[in-house]
Task: inverse folding
């Protein structure tokens, strides 16, 4: 399995070292051709306006959309904004997930925070037993609405949505790559495994 | 657990989101919009760019809060602003405005010739300049959540930024092969806090994000600093003192992303118009060198 990290701008190196710690082969993606050899892609945190502009200028928008239609993408923070259909402001979006987001929804940097989240999807099968996921929110967006096939994965205690999934697409407003907790990365790798098994019937077949 | 704000993780985290990006000096809301449209990851709001501060002389202070607020209301990207070294009241004012990052900067006239601000006291994060590893770790010890080279601001001459980046990164490489029993003497030699030096050795890098600043004027300058190993770049006078700021700003953003791709660097460097009029650092009398401010 090979995972790409979109390396136009942002904390892609943090995702890369997290994935490498899990024994996964990682490559950096800056140009369309680099999408070909990978099974899944992470769009990191960063400035969504910068990443969006560079994606347009280097002809990555269409290839990223086609990639996301076939294979898993996970967007953290700026990446979640890019995956959305609507960011309530004119800027380039991939529109792959049926979610709308509000940028800088908590305010400026002084309002950035850390908090523990319940993420039922990460529960490690033992009945009722679940460690909270410690999440770091940096000038974070909120997922205002999930529609259609998109489902909420986690909310803040007040009910506001901070993680969502639509099939093989994943969006989080926070940064699992900034904590030592690799459960979200492992969850994404599972989505990649499943997608790989579906698209390549020979994958996983032991001779 | 309740939500925790202003942790060091959160302060450092914003700088991590700026990595691989360009932070641009802007003096008006119009500049800020041009910078954002060109792909800047943040803007530094100030009244005069360093080249003008250098030319005008006199005392350079924190910018008018009205100007900073106007810029904050214009762009969606983070806004930084500068305070004088040691001037913690200017920092309190910027914190009350809600700027995203404070640059305790040698470009302004220092307010204290012995002490920097105790940055742990603040909820907003700080970036500070350095010329070497000791200075970088002293600033981190005071609470800086991001470091940049000082370079020599307002010159368009990249030589000092290169010197400072090589000094910091070279000493980090030396640390990697240094036995632990030599760390204390090295800490003493550098004037660096021992625990932070030890952490730097373990991480193989500074404990916070490390940008280049001071004298960068072209896409090639930005790519040079990135190849030397910094996490991103500040461009001050280099953009808005050039012939075609919007085009140059965009070119520097692209060069910072594709810093190892010479064909793209050639492409973005084409037909950029006049660069800022530079001033060779070796022609500047020692007393006028900005990088010497800070202790």
Result:
């Amino acid at each position: 399995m090979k995972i790409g990290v979109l390396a136009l701008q942002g904390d892609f190196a943090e995702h890369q070292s997290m994935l490498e710690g899990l024994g996964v082969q990682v490559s950096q993606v800056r140009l369309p051709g680099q999408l070909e050899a990978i099974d899944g892609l992470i769009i990191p945190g960063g400035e969504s306006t910068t990443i969006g502009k560079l994606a347009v200028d280097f002809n990555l928008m269409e290839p990223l959309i086609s990639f996301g239609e076939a294979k898993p993408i996970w967007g953290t923070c700026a990446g979640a904004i890019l995956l959305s259909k609507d960011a309530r402001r004119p800027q380039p979006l991939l529109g792959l997930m049926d979610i709308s987001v509000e940028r800088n929804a908590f305010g400026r940097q002084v309002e950035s925070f850390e908090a523990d989240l319940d993420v039922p999807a990460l529960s490690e099968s033992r009945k009722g037993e679940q460690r909270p996921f410690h999440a770091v929110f940096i000038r974070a967006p909120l997922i205002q609405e999930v529609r259609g096939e998109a489902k909420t994965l986690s909310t803040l205690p007040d009910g506001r949505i901070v993680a969502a999934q639509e099939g093989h697409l994943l969006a989080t407003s926070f940064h699992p790559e900034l904590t030592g907790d690799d459960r979200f990365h492992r969850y994404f790798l599972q989505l990649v495994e499943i997608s790989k098994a579906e698209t390549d019937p020979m994958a996983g077949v032991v001779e | 657990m309740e939500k925790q704000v202003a942790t060091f993780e959160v302060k450092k985290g914003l700088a991590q989101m700026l990595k691989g990006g360009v932070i641009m000096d802007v003096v008006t809301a119009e500049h800020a919009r041009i910078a954002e449209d060109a792909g800047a990851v943040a803007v530094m709001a100030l009244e005069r760019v360093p080249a003008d501060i250098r030319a005008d002389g006199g005392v350079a202070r924190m910018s008018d809060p009205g100007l900073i607020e106007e810029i904050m209301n214009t762009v969606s990207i983070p806004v930084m602003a500068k305070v004088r070294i040691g001037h913690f009241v200017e920092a309190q004012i910027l914190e009350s405005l809600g700027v995203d990052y404070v640059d305790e900067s040698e470009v302004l006239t220092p307010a204290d010739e012995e002490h920097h601000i105790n940055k742990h006291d603040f909820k907003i994060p700080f970036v500070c300049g350095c010329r070497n590893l000791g200075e970088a770790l002293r600033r981190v010890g005071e609470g800086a959540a991001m470091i940049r080279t000082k370079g020599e601001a307002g010159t368009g001459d990249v030589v000092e930024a290169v010197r400072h980046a090589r000094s910091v990164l070279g000493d980090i490489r030396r640390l990697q092969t240094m036995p632990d029993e030599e760390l204390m003497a090295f800490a003493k030699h550098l004037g660096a806090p021992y625990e932070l030096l030890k952490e730097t050795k373990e991480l193989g890098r500074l404990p916070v994000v490390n940008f280049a600043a001071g004298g960068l004027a072209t896409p090639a300058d930005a790519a040079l600093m990135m190849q030397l190993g910094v996490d991103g770049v500040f461009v001050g006078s280099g953009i808005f003192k050039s012939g075609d700021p919007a085009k140059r700003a965009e070119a520097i953003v692209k060069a910072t992303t594709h810093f190892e791709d010479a064909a793209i660097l050639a492409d973005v460097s084409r037909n950029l118009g006049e660069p800022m009029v530079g001033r060779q650092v070796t022609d500047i009398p020692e007393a006028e060198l900005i990088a010497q401010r800070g202790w």
User: Anything to note?
Assistant: The helical segments of chain A are 12-21, 48-57, 61-70, 78-83, 183-199. The two ends of chain A are 19 Å apart (CA to CA).
